[in-house]
From TrEMBL:
GO BP terms, alphabetized: DNA-templated DNA replication
Protein known as: DNA polymerase III subunit delta
Coiled coil (residue ranges): none
Cited Pfam families: DNA_pol3_delta2
C-alpha cells in the first residue's frame, strides 16, 4: 500500500511517546495481517529518527532505519528481487541477520541520536534468532528503538512480549478499505472490489490479496459449501477448479484466509452446535494457514481439506 490510512489511535500513542521524552525501547505492533502495521512501522521510524535541520534520505536508504525480514530463498530469487520481480523467501528471519543487526548497534546512529530496528515480522524469527534478539531487548543500546510487527503475538516468547509496549491495530472502517482498494487497484471492477471489501473484514491487505488472486469465484464456492453442505463432494470439486490445478502458496493461503473469514462472520448468527463446528473449523484453518508458507504440501490435498472443514461445519437443513 503506497499511503497510510486510518489507525489514528496508534499514531496518537506513538507521537505522544515521542514528544513525551521517555520513549519505550521496544514496541510490539499487533493485529491481523494486512492492517498496514509494517507500513506504519516504516513511517513511525522515519518520524523517530528525524532531526531538525538535517536532510533525511528515503526510508529504504536511511542509515538509522534497519528493516529485518525474510531474505530471498536463493541467488536466483535475489536477482528477481533486484529486478523487481516476485521472489520466494527463506522460511524465517535467521540468527545471522539478528547478529548482523547487533554488530550495527555497537556504533552510534549516523544522522541523529536515534535508530529504529524493524522486524517484519517477529513471528518469522527462528528460535535462535529470538534468543539473540532477547539479549538486545534486555540491554537496549541508548537511542535504539525496536518495532516488532506481529500478526500472532501469542506465539512469541512471554519474555519478548513483556519487554515491549503493545500497540494494537484495529480493523479499518469499510469506507477506508474502499478508498485503499480503489486507489491501489483501479483496474478492478466495482463488483470485484465490493466482494473483496466484504471478505476483508477491515483488512486492506486482505482486500488487495482478494483482488490480486481473483478470489471472487473461490468465495462463491466456499459460501456454497458452508450454506448448503457438500454430501456428494461436487462443491469441493468446483472449489478445486476455482482455486486451480496448481495454485501457488500465495493463492492457497489467500483461499485459507477467506475460508477463515467466512467461519468468523457466521459464528454470531449460528446455532450453538454449528457455532462449535465453525470455531473448530476456524482453528484448523488457522493451523493450515500457518503451515502453508513454510511446509512442503500437496496443493490438491490442501484444497480438499479446506472444503472438507467447511462442509463439516455447515448447518443441516434443520439448522443444527
Amino acid at each position: 500500500m503506497s499511503a497510510l490510512t486510518g489507525h489514528d489511535e496508534a499514531w496518537h500513542e506513538w507521537r505522544a511517546a515521542i514528544s513525551g521524552g521517555r520513549m519505550h525501547h521496544g514496541w510490539l505492533l499487533t493485529g491481523a495481517a494486512g492492517m498496514g502495521k509494517a507500513a506504519f512501522a516504516l513511517s513511525a521510524a522515519a518520524e523517530l529518527v528525524r532531526e531538525t535541520g538535517v536532510p533525511q534520505p528515503p526510508v529504504e536508504h536511511h542509515p538509522d532505519i534497519l528493516l529485518l525480514t525474510r531474505l530471498p530463498a536463493t541467488s536466483d530469487d535475489e536477482k528477481k528481487r533486484e529486478d523487481g520481480k516476485p521472489f520466494a523467501t527463506k522460511r524465517s528471519i535467521t540468527v545471522d541477520q539478528v547478529r548482523g543487526m547487533q554488530r550495527r548497534l555497537t556504533t552510534r546512529p549516523t544522522l541523529g541520536s536515534r535508530r529504529a530496528i524493524i522486524f517484519d515480522s517477529a513471528d518469522d524469527l527462528e528460535k535462535s534468532a529470538v534468543n539473540a534478539l532477547l539479549k538486545s531487548l534486555e540491554e537496549p543500546p541508548e537511542g535504539t528503538i525496536f518495532l516488532l510487527v506481529s500478526h500472532r503475538p501469542g506465539g512469541l516468547l512471554p519474555t519478548v512480549r513483556s519487554r515491549c509496549r503493545m500497540l494494537r491495530f484495529q480493523p479499518l472502517a469499510t469506507a477506508d478499505v474502499e478508498r485503499i482498494a480503489a486507489r491501489e487497484r483501479p483496474e478492478a471492477s466495482s463488483e470485484v472490489r465490493a466482494s473483496a471489501i466484504a471478505a476483508a473484514h477491515g483488512s486492506p491487505g486482505a482486500a488487495l490479496r482478494f483482488i490480486d488472486n481473483d478470489l471472487a469465484a473461490i468465495r462463491r464456492e466456499l459460501l456454497g459449501i458452508i450454506e448448503q453442505g457438500d454430501p456428494d463432494f461436487a462443491r469441493r470439486g468446483a472449489l478445486a477448479s476455482a482455486i486451480g490445478a496448481r495454485p501457488d502458496r500465495e493463492r492457497l493461503l489467500a483461499s485459507v484466509e477467506l475460508a477463515r473469514a467466512i467461519c468468523s462472520e457466521r459464528v454470531a448468527l449460528a446455532s450453538r452446535p454449528v457455532q462449535v463446528r465453525l470455531v473448530e473449523a476456524h482453528a484448523k484453518l488457522t493451523r493450515i494457514g500457518a503451515e502453508i508458507p513454510y511446509a512442503n504440501f500437496d496443493a490438491g490435498l490442501a484444497v480438499v481439506e479446506i472444503g472438507g472443514l467447511l462442509a463439516a461445519a455447515a448447518a443441516s437443513k434443520d439448522g443444527t
